[in-house]
Amino acid sequence: MNKTxxxxxxxxxxxxxxxxxxxxxxxxxxxxxxxIERIIKQYNYVPNxxxxxxxxxxxxxxxxxxxxxxxxxxxxxxxxxxxxxRTNQYQMLIANTSQDMHREIDAIYDFAxxxxxxxxxxxxxxxxxxxxxxxxxxIPVLLVGQQHERLHSLVHNDDxxxxxxxxxxxxxxxxQIVYIxxxxxxxxxxxxxxQGFQRAIAEYGGSGCDVTYxxxxxxxxxxxxxxxxxxxxxxxxxxxxxxxxxALGVMKTAFSNKIRIPHELSVAGFGGYDITEMIHPALTTxxxxxxxxGKLAASHMIRQVTGEPVEKQTILDVELIPRESVxxx
Amino acid sequence: MNKTxxxxxxxxxxxxxxxxxxxxxxxxxxxxxxxIERIIKQYNYVPNxxxxxxxxxxxxxxxxxxxxxxxxxxxxxxxxxxxxxRTNQYQMLIANTSQDMHREIDAIYDFAxxxxxxxxxxxxxxxxxxxxxxxxxxIPVLLVGQQHERLHSLVHNDDxxxxxxxxxxxxxxxxQIVYIxxxxxxxxxxxxxxQGFQRAIAEYGGSGCDVTYxxxxxxxxxxxxxxxxxxxxxxxxxxxxxxxxxALGVMKTAFSNKIRIPHELSVAGFGGYDITEMIHPALTTxxxxxxxxGKLAASHMIRQVTGEPVEKQTILDVELIPRESVxxx
DNA sequence: CTGAAAGCGCTTACAG
DNA sequence: CTGAAAGCGCTTACAG
Lengths: 329, 329
Description:
Chain A is an alpha/beta fold. The first copy, chain A, has twelve helices and twelve strands.
């Protein structure tokens, strides 16, 4: 059945160390090169990965830890990572943690056991346990979506995103504003995004601007509950959700309560999910470049793995997309 | 740094074959069991996967081939597979082919090289090349979402889905019907789903029922183009899309053309994507149980791998969900 | 129940 | 440039 390096060596009339050298780009004479190449083609030989890894003690696998599989952001980022790794002969291994932090830590150690060459971490939150794990395993790690001074990271410009949105909202004439955020444990979304928003409001809003902040989870269902409560005791002209999902939850709530968007209530979000331009009214949002983030993450990871210099932190641009869900007041 | 089985053996004062036997559930005396266990705990020993696989020539990895990562159906199915595999100490490896059939075939061979124990194939289309690959690798394969007499498979009841929808549409009084399908190369969606629909129309529709069939791709953007064309030269009371994405494209087109849903045009789809109940009007659809399909696929796969008997074909129930997008006429 | 030995398919110094 | 040999960390008959 499957040929081994010994078979190939024998068939080509050389030693297996020579075949191995050929395989790994070492120098061999033109003559032997041809012999070996021919046999390899002929028998369609491919080296056994396990044997390689056992000796080399490393692999060309990059592990990616994701908090969930069913989100636009995750899918797009993964696709980007996968494409870039593939073109560089690396393989992607995915560990889905279903938002369970213990599994996140476990996944890091598991990847280390499997001798992945590097780990890309899409975490919502970076705890001491994360840092400890990263330190212990001694494998390059790249954080995506969050930043931390002790780790390499690649982030979307959340502060800018919040700022652009805040500025836009004020310029559209909104003064009764509700911002639904998320937990501060998620620094990128919970803190930076909101702070950028606040900063813009402070700069452009003037004194008559009234902003109320609420907190909800990343789930649409909870966003609906939160939105229900808000609309019961508040009369904002706009609700800004910290994610498109939250904004979608707000829209759903408005529909249920026969509140017309954007005439009676404007809504905006963050993310730039595909679906946001399919719905009616189309959602105003700040688009993050997830696909590009994934590709960049992969190429940075490869540089880390191969020991090339690589920037400690990369910040990706964002883009405000005005659509129908925000009205002029 | 990392201990090997020899270290453990030495530390415990036994031979490494004994440790190995202990690890693999062979019989050891109570006494040695305790000694070994203690050392393993103490040093947090975990066997090297590569060495294991090199000898055993197989792994506890199940490869999953998916046509795309950014779809509700795929994500949900993957989550189901992953959860079930995890609880059974198997690992999931994902190969995303971005709808490129060559990569699909390559992925099968790649998985074989990596000695995965089984392959779960989420393919839209089964060609001779697929069958050849499956045969050549000699590894258990389970097809999900499509059926084929030569392969184990797990499918959603597409015929029933189409039938339920057809019946529902007729019962709601629709007689001017447009059905937007997809290529017949995708047998499940392109043929079975449509045929079920046709069958119901034939049974319940009577003579005055006019159904026109169109074909589009799985992309929303193309669905929009198709829908534009349809609405230009046709005046149906309802458009049924073969997938929720197509239905979403139809809705978008209706919105753009100021056609009110469902008063002027009803719309329905298939899939039961989460988003379909968040939008307004909420989309009438037939729900497939992707998560359950994933779990079942994983458990069937494990049975195939371990040589237990397993049904050649499994058909999963579907569920019609009437919502706001379909009007009574 | 236990251990010594061979071997899985590679790679890596080390000689020549 | 090339080859013989050792070794990566396991498992698996085979004796005892």
